[in-house]
């Protein structure tokens, strides 16, 4: 097995064990117990709670696999529970489960914890970290071509904290280059072309839309696929949103544009299209390639009167991106935790 998956599995067990400890359980990890049959079973996380009269035991199986679990994992844990006489079984799977596993779990009364359940219990940051290859350094697809120097970025950031005429300066809590997650989507625009004395024809135009994977805001649209490469980086923020939801919003917005009747409604719809980075008067929209890539921003966390805000400087243009700053500020706690910033 790849070392990164071994590391990921160990961290998953640690996170789950910590969750049960915080909820009043005595916890042991990677324990071995002999069952009634004489067979010895290894349990990833064993959580115990006693009221002085009886003891409640929970066996947790942790799967940090690259694919969803199958029903054989459920069947195995069910046999272990019966042999050991434990009260409850939970299977934690980073990539979820197949339908057969869910059906078997319902029959065997075994709980399944997938990405949604883990996010609720461990928090979105912990889940995002578990889905990364390592705890400190991340292998990411990063956009290439940033040319603004760190010194220029730092000067621009410093000017942002000065306030009006240098008065009311904000405290700089953190500054540095960070990698922002984005959905890069290959789009194909279908538009009607009308030429004199000819039947209208449909023209297909390719484009590449880049959207923040924190709140799906449109960042930029490229005429050609931008250059990106795999690299190891720290200060990486991991994706919060899923591309499927964004793609559905793009396609639905274009389809609804055909039903708009009044000028007022048309104006509102044009604004929606503009916010999504889509041209007006599209007949249809289709998508093909979808990637998560990371965009470099020089960030500053500023504080004044107990209020925090992020300022984002585009590492390609050197300009202040107020929309990205607002996006990061709306996810303040998530971004701070992802960057390892301790709130004080």
Notes on the structure:
With 344 residues, the chain is an alpha+beta fold. The protein folds into 2 domains: 3-130, Trna Endonuclease, Chain: A, domain 1; 138-338, no CATH class. The chain is 33% helix and 35% strand. It contains 10 helices and 12 strands. The strands form 3 sheets. Strands 1-2-3-4-5 form a 5-stranded mixed sheet, sandwiched between helices. It has a 5-stranded antiparallel sheet with strand order 9-8-7-11-12. Strands 6-10 form a two-stranded antiparallel sheet. β3 (55-63), α2 (71-84) and β4 form a beta-alpha-beta unit. The longest helix is centred in the first third of the chain and has 20 residues, at 3-22. Mean pLDDT is 85; it is low at 1-6.
Structure summarized in a few sentences:
By secondary structure, this protein is of the alpha+beta class. 33% of the residues lie in helices and 35% in strands.
Note the topology:
Elements: H1 3-22, E1 26-34, E2 40-50, E3 55-63, H2 71-84, E4 88-93, H3 99-108, E5 111-113, H4 115-122, H5 124-130, E6 138-143, H6 150-160, E7 171-193, E8 201-212, E9 218-222, E10 228-233, H7 243-256, H8 263-275, E11 282-304, E12 307-314, H9 322-330, H10 332-338
Parallel strand pairs: 3-4, 4-5
Antiparallel strand pairs: 1-2, 2-3, 6-10, 7-8, 7-11, 8-9, 11-12
Helix pairs in contact: 2-3, 4-5
């Amino acid at each position: 097995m790849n070392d990164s998956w071994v590391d990921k599995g160990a961290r998953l067990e640690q996170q789950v064990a910590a969750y049960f400890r915080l909820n009043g359980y005595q916890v042991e990890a990677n324990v071995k117990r002999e069952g009634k049959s004489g067979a010895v079973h290894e349990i990833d996380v064993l959580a115990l709670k006693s009221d002085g009269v009886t003891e409640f035991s929970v066996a947790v199986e942790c799967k940090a696999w690259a694919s969803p679990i199958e029903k054989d994992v459920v069947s195995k844990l069910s046999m272990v529970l019966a042999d050991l006489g434990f009260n409850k079984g939970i299977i934690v799977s980073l990539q979820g489960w197949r339908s057969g596993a869910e059906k078997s779990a319902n029959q065997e009364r075994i709980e399944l914890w997938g990405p949604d359940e883990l996010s609720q219990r461990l928090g979105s940051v912990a889940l995002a970290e578990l889905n990364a290859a390592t705890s400190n350094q991340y292998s990411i697809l990063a956009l290439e071509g940033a040319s603004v120097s760190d010194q220029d970025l730092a000067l621009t950031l410093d000017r942002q904290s000065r306030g009006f005429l240098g008065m009311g300066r904000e405290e700089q809590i953190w500054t540095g280059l960070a990698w922002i997650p984005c959905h890069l989507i290959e789009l194909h625009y279908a538009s009607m072309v009308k030429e004199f004395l000819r039947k209208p024809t449909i023209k297909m135009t390719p484009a590449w839309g880049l959207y923040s994977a924190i709140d799906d805001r449109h960042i930029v649209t490229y005429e050609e696929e931008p250059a990106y490469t795999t690299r190891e980086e720290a200060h990486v923020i991991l994706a919060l949103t899923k591309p499927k939801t964004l793609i559905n919003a793009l396609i639905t917005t274009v389809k609804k544009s055909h039903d708009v009747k009044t000028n007022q409604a048309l104006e509102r719809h044009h604004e929606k299209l503009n916010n999504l980075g889509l041209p007006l008067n599209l007949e249809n929209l289709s998508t093909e390639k979808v990637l998560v890539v990371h965009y470099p921003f020089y960030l500053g966390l500023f504080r004044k009167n107990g209020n925090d805000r992020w300022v984002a400087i585009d590492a390609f243009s050197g300009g202040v991106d107020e929309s990205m700053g607002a996006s990061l500020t709306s996810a303040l706690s998530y971004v701070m935790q992802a960057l390892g910033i301790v709130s004080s």
